[in-house]
Amino acid sequence: MARPNGSPIINCSNGSVYSHDPQLSTWVKLSEKWWSEGSDVWQGRQRTSASNQSNGGHKGVIAVIESGVSSSGGPDEKVVAKARPEWWTTALTLGHLETRMHAARLLDSQAEYKQALVLYAKKIADEGFRSKAEELIKELRGPIYYRPGEDRKDWNPTVVGLPKRDLLKDVLVQFARSKTLTKLAMDYQEQLKQAANEE
C-alpha cells in the first residue's frame, strides 16, 4: 500500500509496520506491538480516539495502522505482567509519541501530527521535563534573529504543511499548565509575540 505522497506502507507478520524515509534513505518503523505494552496513548486502549473525532468519524492513517497492529494479536500477557520501574510508562509513552509524530510527518497526516504533538507536550508538561520542553520549543520556534550573511534555509518554518510557530503556541499552552514549566512557557510566549511584532 502507498500513500498519496508516495510513501509506501509495509505490514510485517511480527506486527511491525514500516515505511521508507527518503530524507534518511532508510526504512523506519511507523508502529509496532511494543508500544501496546505500556504506552498511555496506544489506540487499542482508547474507545474513541481524539484523531477519530477530529476527522469527523474518519480514522487517520496512523489510527488505522495502530488498529491493525492491535487486531493482529495483543501483547504477551507474561511480558505485560512483568514488574516495571516507575518511569517505564512515561518513557514508553514519550517514545511512542515521537514515533507517531515521525510517522505522521512521513505519511503527510496533518491532523494526526498535531494531535500527537499536543499529547507529547502534555506528557512532557505532566512530568516537568524541562530539557525535553526546551528541545521541542527550539525545534518549533527556529531562529529568531539572523546574523548578516547567515543562510536562512537551515530551518524549515513548516512541518506537514503546518506553520511550526503556530504549533508552538499550542505546545506552550500545555507547558503553561505545568507547575515546573509555567515560567518557561510564559517567557517563550512573550518572545513569540515580540518576534511577530517585529515581522
Automatic annotation (TrEMBL):
Keywords: Chromatin regulator, Nucleus, Repeat, WD repeat. Signal peptide: none annotated. Coiled coil: none annotated. InterPro entries: HIR1-like, HIRA-like_C. It is found in: Nucleus. Residues 4-140 form the Protein HIRA-like C-terminal domain. This is HIR complex subunit. It comes from Marasmius crinis-equi.
